[in-house]
Design goal:
This protein is of the alpha/beta class. It has helices spanning 49-59, 76-84, 118-123, 135-144, 162-175, 185-189; strands at 2-7, 17-23, 62-67, 88-93, 105-108, 126-131, 152-157, 179-181. The protein is built from 6 helices and 8 strands, in the order ββαβαββαβαβαβα. An 8-stranded mixed beta sheet has the order 1-2-3-4-5-6-7-8. The protein starts with a strand and ends with a helix.
Length: 192
């Protein structure tokens, strides 16, 4: 769908430079998705892997593959080519599809509408749960029980509910310090 060089705005790698590859196509259907234009893969013609890798190589040594839902597609060729150029390759995914590709960092952001496959829980370096309402704290705990013991746990307010949910997240993390707060800092910085 698009590629761009920017600062990672969310989760464990917040504040670091990365080249983002946004893959078109997603059927998870989060009502609060901030990139709904990514859902229809037919609107985004395929780009040659070699072209994507050449663009990424110009900017960064870390690449983040996101979507849409990147695991809708087989990511093996893309990750192999990026890694052959010495790049670290991260993914941000709902985990709803089988895990393909070779990842240096696996950010699992599960959604209630289409839960992750078991393998995604095992791969997670980071669990990032979006908090849109109070029930999402229960969902977050359910998801935390499924990830591997080394996964770093984040709660992130859904952007349109940030004023309402951020204080609740802060209180929750203070009472449950296994969790960390993630914010969409790129939106505060007004960058992509």
């Amino acid at each position: 769908m698009e590629e761009f060089y920017t600062i990672q705005g969310e989760g464990f790698h917040t504040g670091t430079a990365a080249y983002f590859i946004r893959v078109g196509g997603c059927d998870v259907g989060c009502h609060w998705c901030d990139v709904k234009e990514s859902w229809d893969a037919n609107l985004h013609p395929p780009t040659a892997t070699s072209e994507i890798v050449a663009h990424a190589r110009q900017y960064a040594d870390t690449v983040v593959v996101t979507g849409g839902e990147p695991l809708t597609w087989d990511m093996s060729v893309l990750t192999s080519e990026l890694k052959s150029q010495g790049m670290r390759v991260h993914i941000e995914t709902s985990g709803a599809y089988p895990v393909t590709g070779n990842w240096d960092w696996f950010c699992l952001s599960p959604k209630k509408t289409k839960l992750p496959v078991d393998e995604a829980y095992d791969c997670a370096d980071e669990l990032k749960v979006i908090i849109h309402n109070k029930h999402d704290f229960i969902f977050a705990e359910q998801q935390a029980e499924k990830v591997n013991v080394n996964a770093i746990l984040f709660l992130q307010p859904e952007w349109s509910k940030r004023e309402e949910m951020t204080p609740l997240i802060v209180d929750y993390v203070m009472s449950n310090p296994k969790w960390r707060v993630s914010l969409q800092t790129h939106k505060y910085l007004n960058i992509p």
